[in-house]
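Can't paste images in this forum, so I'm doing it all in text. The chain is below; anyone willing to post the predicted structure tokens underneath?
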Amino acid sequence: MAETLHQIARFLIPTWPLLAACLLALLPEKRAAGSARLFALTGLALTVLLTPLVAGQDLITRWTWLLAASVPFLSWREGSRRLTLCLDFLACFVTMLALGLHAVLPVACLIACGALLLALRESLATTRARQAWESMRLRLAGTILTLLGSSLTSFSPDPATLRLGDLLLSIGLCLLAGLGAPGGLASYFDSSLIPPTERASALLDMLLCIAAIALMIRLPERDITHTVLVLAGLAALWLGILARQDGVRSLIALAIVSTAIPGGHVPAMLFLSTGLALAAEPALDSRSRRWVACGLPPWPPFAASCGLLAGLMRSSPLSGGLAALLTVIGLGVMASRSGLAGALPCAWRDRLILLLLLGLGLVAPFLLPAVHTGQDFSLGWMAP
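Text version of the structure:
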């Protein structure tokens, strides 16, 4: 019986978005929006119920499955076209499939497929097609570098070749996560740049970031990988701060830095959870969004930032201390721009998002030490 439930859960969790997209394609256009909302809620409930039944998966997979499963519901907008709704579900499908696989080659290819779906959706639903296709080409370049780096690290025992492979693999994953995209991640995540009707693109872009960062967490702990991820994350953090676009973009950057430290999986997941909540665009002004993102209590980035700084100092007293100092200064600059007078938004969905985020922030400081002192899970994605 337990094995049967495991097999059912293993099949339904990544494939329910594909089934929903197929059903939407068969429905009349006028019924698509209402049915998509029902499918999204049903799929999210299925994921919550079935995830504990899947054996052999670690904390990263379970957590990111829950984040990805919420995207179709959070990105739903009344009056959306059937084709764009189908693309939302398909993007969720390829991401959830990638999160459950344990090999670099299919994961990188699925992230590239997700980038293609995002670009196609942007071409059909918004006026940002050129920027979306440029971002897709950049992610395609990241896919090529990732596959090349993975090949070098897998098939050559030469130390110099291994270092080159680690370098290419790390850079490729940073490109897959959206670093270096035209206009930066803020082109999707800055609420002043896009109207509310186009903000579903931010959630789809977050899906790609989640998949890429989940793969970064599983990279072998090597010096070149640590250096590239820390430098890339700090550069993205400070570029966003200097451009005054330091909301979700800063959280993605901090999550990338977290992937380079021992035990950084929990801070990375907390940063990604907060980024997904902000990308869902609850009714917060820019100053309140910075309060959530800058690591002030009671929000999840507070515990995540403490774990990140402790990990940086533990990894290397000199270079890690400098990286921790730059991170603290960056968070301080963001905190100086934040507003501490927040109010609950009017929409019930936005209220629920903020309350869940607040609950996660209150629980995170107590759970973080317990998780870190537990037994480390296997990071075997690079194994043949």
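The chain has two domains: 1-100, 101-372. The two ends are 31 Å apart (CA to CA).
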